[in-house]
């Protein structure tokens, strides 16, 4: 399997694991009668979540924002017959992605937010390189 495709699957799995963690917590509360099912309406939570669940949710949402971009680049590279370009840095890209998610889960302190921004910047630099190469601009 091409590294770019393996990373696409890994990125998708990471996104799924993040949502599964906080959703299973919520489902357990509902099934045990500790919280009503409508305690987590979009943008208007009526339930006092532990901070770790919010951090998992935000890490998941961040993956949802970035997964389609990576998938689109992989699709374009595949259609152009240039997957090897993506393959070269695919695992590095995912390393930044995984590190960003882990940092997101661990803490929201200023230091960790800065580290998260560094991890995101690493991903953006790689994505920009791929886009420029695929478009023939470099």
Notes on the structure:
The chain crosses the membrane at residues 6-25, 67-85, 105-132. Pfam families: MAPEG. This is MAPEG family protein. It is found in: Membrane. Keywords: Membrane, Transmembrane, Transmembrane helix. With 138 residues, the chain is an all-alpha fold. It has one domain (3-134): Four Helix Bundle (Hemerythrin (Met), subunit A) (Up-down Bundle), CATH 1.20.120. The protein contains five helices and two strands; from the N terminus they run αββαααα. It has helices spanning 3-31, 51-79, 83-87, 90-106, 110-134; strands at residues 40-41, 44-45. A two-stranded antiparallel ribbon has the order 1-2. Strand 1 (40-41) and strand 2 form a beta hairpin. Helix 1 (3-31) packs antiparallel against helix 2 (51-79). The longest helix is centred in the first third of the chain and has 29 residues, at 3-31. The chain starts with a helix and ends with a helix. The model has no long low-confidence stretch (mean pLDDT 93).
Features:
2 strands, elongated, Four Helix Bundle (Hemerythrin (Met), subunit A), single chain, 138 residues, two-stranded antiparallel ribbon, mainly alpha
Q: Can you describe this structure in just a few lines?
A:
It is built from 5 helices and 2 strands; from the N terminus they run αββαααα. With 138 residues, the chain is mainly alpha-helical.
């Amino acid at each position: 399997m091409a590294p770019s495709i393996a990373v696409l699957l890994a990125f998708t799995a990471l996104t799924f694991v993040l949502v599964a963690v906080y959703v299973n917590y919520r489902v357990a509360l509902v099934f045990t009668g500790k919280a009503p099912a409508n305690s987590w309406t979009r943008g208007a939570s009526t339930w006092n979540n532990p901070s770790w669940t919010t951090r998992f949710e935000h890490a998941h949402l961040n993956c949802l924002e970035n997964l389609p971009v990576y998938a689109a680049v992989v699709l374009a590279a595949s259609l152009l017959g240039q997957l090897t370009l993506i393959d070269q840095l695919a695992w590095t890209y995912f390393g930044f992605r995984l590190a960003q998610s882990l940092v997101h889960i661990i803490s929201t302190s200023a230091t960790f937010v800065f580290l998260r921004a560094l991890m995101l910047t690493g991903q953006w630099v790689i994505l920009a390189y791929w886009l420029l190469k695929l478009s023939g601009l470099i």
